[in-house]
Amino acid sequence: LKWMRFWLSMKGVLVEMKRIKAIVPIVILCCVLSFSAVACLWGAETTLKADALSYNPATKKMVATGNVRLIRADGELSGQRGEGDVGANHFLMEGSVRGKFPKEGISLESDILELTIPNDRKILEGRGNVRLLRGEDRLNADKVRRVIGEDSYRGVGNVIARFETHSIDADEVARDGERFWGKGVHRYEDKKQRFTLKASKINGFKRF
After folding, report:
1. What is the separation of C-alpha 2 from the centre of its chain, rounded to a whole number of angstroms?
2. CA–CA distance from 146 to each of 32, 36, 99, 156 (Å)?
């Protein structure tokens, strides 16, 4: 059974595993108990792929290890380890994490990526060497929080943001719709107006 490929579909969620080390009936039970957490996170027709998947009834946590991929029509997460709480609308991925969201034209890389869904809002928080890309625009920071489907983000710690006509190096940069602001701004450049400045705080309007 070590290299057996196992597929099971339930509630629109598909799981693929390799290197199954447990008895098949036990593995099936673990998968069934884990499906609700993944389904809550991404809705119907979600695919979770990993080399191994385990479930702890005491903590109600599932753990996926080795080439983990969480796939949905509107986005995909990949990493080396994933952990989720059954029924808690929470999934954490770590180990060279990558996120792709084609509909928004966004890709994200980080050491750790956490997905939570409070009140039907999908919130992504990347931590450690975070890199957020959208077209030619990019945002690097120690931590980035973004709401999927909304023009809202926040970068904290060693922020380096590069836009088509603006660039900003700061301790914190955030955006809500057309409005953006920064704190601890070490350098702000407006390439179109041809000026640079340094300030404790800035406010403005920009699409990203």
Report:
1. 30
2. 30, 24, 12, 12
Q: What residue spans of the chain are helical by DSSP H?
A: 24-42
Residue 7 has pLDDT above 50, yes or no: no
pLDDT score for 25: 35
Instruction: State which amino acid sits at residue 116.
Output: T
CB 188 within 8 A of CB 196: yes
Distance CA 19, CA 13 (A): 20
SS3 1: coil
Task: Tell me what pLDDT residue 45 has.
Answer: 63
Q: Answer with the residue of higher pLDDT: 158 or 43.
A: 158
| 119 three-state secondary structure | helix
Return the structure tokens found at 155. Answer: 């970068």
Is 26 in a helix, a strand, or coil? helix
Main-chain phi, psi angles of 22, to 5 degrees: -110, 170
The upper half-sphere exposure of residue 179, i.e. CA atoms within 13 Å in the direction of its Cβ, equals 3
Contact 109, 130 (CB under 8 A): yes
Question: Does the model's pTM come out above 0.90?
Answer: no
H helix and E strand count, the chain: 1, 14
What is the token pair recorded at 184?
Answer: 């601890």
